[in-house]
Amino acid sequence: MVIGVALVFAATLAYVMRFLLARMEPVHALLFTALAAGMSMGHLLARPHVLVWPLLVLWVGGLVNAVENGRSPSWWLLALLALWANLHGSFTLGLALAVALAVEAVSNCTAGQRREMGWRWAKFLGLAVVAAMMTPSGWQGLWYPAQVTSMALALDVIQEWRSPDFHKPQIIELWLMLLLATACSGRVRLPLLRLILVLGLAHLALKHQRHIAVLGLVTPFLMAAPLAFQWRATRGMGRDAASLDRIFAALAAPARWGAIVAAAMLTTLVIGVGLQVGRFTPASATTPEAAVNAALQSGVAGPVLNSYNFGGYLIYRGVPVFIDGRADMYGDALLERYLDALKLKSTGTLPDLLADYRIAWTLLEPGTPAVVLLDRLPGWRRIYSDEIAVVHVHYGDGATP
Question: How far apart are CA 338 and CA 324, in angstroms?
Fold first, then answer.
């Protein structure tokens, strides 16, 4: 899984780099690609959202190419969107970007061409909506963003939905400063709709840190052509590092077959070494293997109350969970009751939850306040604990522990 994610990420950056090299100076293309890579690192995990990053850049690249070439998008993008919709809920962002770029494409045309161009883009957008509904969720998938954004509690407590912590170094801070410096120096002027898109993506990234990767991957496509045009218009004002330019131009040329084969062989070698080393293992803090083994060996049966971060591992072990990382499946009401119970917000919150869901055993992180109460609660007994997890089993009121 780690290797698969790494290869997908590499392919994503390769496409971003190749798109930029067709429009701007190689050193600028390299800078944009490096920023995109850095802004994606914080969310580079073995999770489904990484699988759609190449689809995201191919979609945006295809739309921007269509706008800049004065034509409607290629129809193969519709198949791309249908695949995206079946992999991850972020496909609605692709629809929003398509609508904005369609408006730009029509506004760029002469008065006599706008009707035809508008009709061509309208057909594409209509079919794009149909393609986005070709999922088990159908039309309801289009409302997924509204469902998620309405979960106020989940957005407050889940780390990836919080704002970036600027008390720590953040790559988005560097991105913002470079963008501000470039704008203030007069090096770039974006078309109005693209400016709105960049500001909207920046807003999402500042509000939810999970969108920083989207900001880094999408904005190069929106800014490449305007930035390159402004750079060429003002290039004569400064000295040109001709020797450095020649080096970058040589490196930016399409690779020959020999270089491709050598790169493939080197990549295969690195992957082989990585597999032999075996350093890629799940984080111990979310892998309560010993605790689950102890619980299963004791013969526990029935529903479990688990810590939020243990849901993934329990699913891996085939144990039905109380809750896992897909908070949108559970809703704010259950999430609030669950958190209140684990934090012992009031006297009866935990016992009531245990009774209502007929909880037979618990698997909680050691620092959870509920662990202290379970140690004293009648009918409950601690059977295992370590630095990762604590297991309590319900043996019934009045029964022998």
Answer: 12
Number of CB atoms found within 10 A of residue 293's CB: 13
User: Tokens for 249?
Assistant: 């131009």
Helix (H, G, I), strand (E, B) or coil at 319: coil
At 248-282, the pLDDT tens digits run: 777 778 888 998 899 999 999 988 888 887 677 78
Residues 12, 14, 20, 25, CA torsion sign: positive
Q: How far apart are CA 245 and CA 240, in angstroms?
A: 8
Q: Which helix (H) or strand (E) holds 34?
A: helix 26-41
Q: Is 397 helix (H, G, I), strand (E, B) or coil?
A: coil
Phi-psi category of residue 369: left, alpha or beta, with phi > 0 → left and psi -120 to 50 → alpha: alpha
Instruction: Answer for the pair 359, 353: CB distance below 8 angstroms, yes or no.
Output: yes
Which of 152, 169, 174, 170 lies closest to 161, judged by CA?
152
What token pair was written down for 256?
A: 């020959």
pLDDT 10s digits, 80-108: 999 999 999 899 999 999 999 999 999 99
Q: Give the integer Cα–Cα distance in Å for 374 and 154.
A: 26
CA neighbours closer than 13 Å in the CB half-sphere of residue 145:
10
Q: Does residue 366 register a pLDDT over 80? A: yes
**Does residue 377 carry a pLDDT above 80?**
yes
Predicted pLDDT of residue 240:
54
- Dig out the tokens for 121 from the structure: 């883009």
pLDDT given at position 158 = 85
